[in-house]
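## retry 2 of 3
previous attempt timed out at serialization; input unchanged, resubmitting
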Amino acid sequence: MTLTLLIDLDDTLLTNNIETFLPAYLKALGRHMVDYVAPESMTHHLMRATKAMVTNNTADLSLERSFDGVFYPAIGRTKEELQTVIEKFYDDVFPQLQPLTSPRPEAVKLVEGALHQGHTLVVATNPLFPKKAILHRLRWAGLDPDEINFALITTYECFHYAKPNPAYFAEILAQLGWPSQPAVVIGNSLEDDLIPAACLGLPVYWVIEPQSELPPPPLPEGFHPLSASGSLAEIPAWIDRVDAAGLRQEFKTPQAMLAVLKSTPAAMDTLCLNLNERQWKDRPQPNAWSLTEIICHLRDVDREVNIPRMERVIQEKDPFVPGVNSDQWAEERKYFLEDGPTALREFIEVRGKLITMLEELPEASWQLPARHAIFGPTRLQELVSFTAMHDRTHVQQALETIRTLA
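## retry succeeded, writing output
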């Protein structure tokens, strides 16, 4: 069996002290943009826009669009006006910050060894930078993305959630099509990497600074039992232990299930970028659904099954929940005639309503009982778990459809 390794970048694969790097980055960017915006003003509004990305909790906007909506109006310039000068900054000026960082030979060995064993690797860096900035830092780490087959590199162009939101890690797995092999998270930050990953029930590895002479601190209670901490050099042995354990990927807690539900519209938004009409409308097989039909199905099941069903469980005492055959709606409602991008926007909106309803519940409400026509006695938490499993199935289906029609 192989694993999906979600590996942090800064101070995990690359030595990069943010307390040194960030001021230098802001100073360089301010100097480069001085003809367009005062450095003090630019820094203030850039940090406000970055906070908007970190706190974003919906799939309505990618992180890039979230940033743009705060930053450019605040400085009185359009993105189009500054696009060329910003591109030049990341092409010519940003690389001058490399001396503030240093590669870690153990990281290169870790990546090369994991790929040789057949593991899937994701660069799970906080996606608060453009792709160009992250690719530069990977090259500084000795991990040229043109030569190394990373399955995914998280950037602000293609992500909707940032660390420490647990939905960030769920969004990674959703964009990969919810791979069957187990996933683990490797990082140096307890707050940004390990705690949110542990909320999903993922095993984590806490990378301790190599210069530390102290024994690694214990991981907090409640972490997956296969979690560990130590040096980069010890990670391959840990990967082998996790691999041998035959781990099952499960998302059982309310927080984990909410992260899965948030990840579905976000991943669909990214996976559907720049598709042509044929890719929206064509069926990969005569008896299969098109991408538009998949999204219409997810939208209508939320609107007409999930939300009304969960409202009944919340509002009524041990209600009876009938089964619904929603698969037949695709033909009955002629989903193939609908506009795919419009259906996606509608799904994102209705899924937001479902998530808001669930997030506002007190913890005890997740145990409210119901009687399901097929599954018998159940509780709200189990009904939500059915929705999360249903999501994962159709995200896999959508990604396979997109790949088949590429």
